[in-house]
Amino acid sequence: MSGRTPRLSRLRRVVPEGRSARQAIAARAGRPAEARGGRARRRGAQPKVVALGGGMGLSASLAALRRITGDLTAVVTVADDGGSSGRLRDELGVLPPGDLRKALAALCGDDDWGQTWARVIQHRFTSQGDLHDHAVGNLLIVALWEQLGDHVQALDLVGKLLGAHGRVLPMSAVPLELQALVKGHDPERPEAVDTVRGQATVALTSGEVQSVHLVPLDPPAVPEAVDAVLDADWVVLGPGSWFSSVIPHLLVPELLDALTETRARRVLSLNLAPQPGETEGFSPQRHLEVLGRHAPKLALDVVLADEAAVPDREVLTEAAKRFGAAVELAPVARRDGTPRHDPELLAAAYDRIFRMHGRIGPWR
Predict the structure, then answer these.
(1) Contacting residues for 116 by C-beta, under 8 A, at least 6 apart
(2) Nearest to 54 by CA among 287, 241, 265
(3) What is the pTM of this model?
(4) Using one digit for the tens of pLDDT, what is the confidence trace for 289-341?
(5) Starting from the edge strand earliest in sequence, which strands make up the sheet with 48-53, in order?
(6) What are φ and ψ of residue 172, in 5° steps?
(7) Are strands 234-237 and 48-53 parallel, antiparallel or unpaired?
(8) Cα R_g (the chain), whole angstroms
(9) Which of 224, 119, 244, 88 minimizes the C-alpha distance to 168?
(10) How confident is the model at residue 277 (pLDDT cuts 50, 70, 90)?
């Protein structure tokens, strides 16, 4: 553990002490867009969109959103503790880079440059040694963190190299541990509720997840992530692993404050199917119920779901009303029968929502 301290202390310096979303709002009040780090808004400008999540769910959302706006920011969970990310986290004490890498790959363009770099950073080594199963992009990101001592600057530099159509930010500047209360995690004690530690373990549990929390309990948010949410026109939450990729953003106090204070409209994108283990047997409305238990003050404007994945629209509509949201059903799944989102169809659904439900700002 002693070997980790210099790296972590050097990287953590980018997090202001005691900064809340409300303080960020007050600090930004009355300042022009340029002074807030953004560009001046003009009529006809593209919407500012922030997408929150992690893993393949966030990647699907980003691959769709980059087709309809050039002003896109991904805010990514940093609780992963498995695979290459977990090994780098354990050995170097850094943020897990895997979900950040996937988000960057999803933002790569469809031209030769973008697709080549997407393949390169996703490439995993195969060997009999220590490099086995490490992703190239993970090593690149961590190397730049160590060189620059700044999470955000390093990710911006990787995005520039890739020609990414958007920006990628971690939700927190400290590595987080996901813990869950799980009923029946031990098959021999089906009624017992145990604390399960680690995102990888939570995602694969055969028990029923009751709730999740982060360690530390009140992690600091990356200031740029808070500012992005406050300055957005639309915020998209989901799809993705519900307890390990979607809900964790609501457990970072500054991010939750920003989500409740922002003038942006908020879209929740539901999964196409329950996830084995984590949300086995969940209906669409139950996804909303557990979200509400973790963030009872959260308001939403739109809940997006695939029409084929909703057996009872009326029940889902009632669940969405508790968040103040309307339900939009659209065909967003791939046509190969797998529970994966089609980027073009999902892009069309987001674009229709942005147009139908009102845009905030002079670009409408």
Answers:
(1) none
(2) 241
(3) 0.86
(4) 999 999 999 999 999 999 999 999 999 999 999 999 999 999 999 988 888 99
(5) 167-170, 71-76, 48-53, 234-237, 265-269, 302-306, 326-330
(6) -140, 155
(7) parallel
(8) 20
(9) 224
(10) confident
